[in-house]
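Journal club prep — side note

Before the paper discussion, L.F. wants everyone to see what a predicted structure for a comparable chain looks like in token form. Sequence:
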Amino acid sequence: MLAVIKVRGVIGASYDLKHTLNLINLTKTNHLVLIQDTAQMKKMVHKVKDYVTYGEISKEMLAKVLEKKARITETKKLTLEALKEMKIKDYNELAEQLISGKTTLKKLGIKRVFRLKAPRKGYGRQGTGKPFKIGGALGYRATAIDDLIKKMI
């Protein structure tokens, strides 16, 4: 499962790029979306790599994100009682089911966009205009996405 975070705004970007971001459900900066690791989704993410950062999220970090930032409606948080109604015992079990592909957030009625804060101490020494490989924030991060999410929760 890939975690995709929108880092930059799209002022001056092409229509195709804006449309792809909308298809991924990334409309605002510092929002996180979880997507399945399929060829189609990878192509979409690769198309917008200059505006997002992405990588494989670990089960532990996914459970923490679900616990702190998941919402059922705009104002109602995902609680353990709500999970028990869905016949899921805790956030770790939900994270495991999501990563394995047994269920989806949409099927469970959970919002697919997680609203995060700006990262403490910034994105990196080069800022939001450079790729992650040279010290910036954009593009593929692999498992280093967990460190960024930890700074943003």
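L.F.'s comment for the group: Residues 97 and 142 are 21 Å apart (CA to CA). Keep this in mind when we get to the figures.
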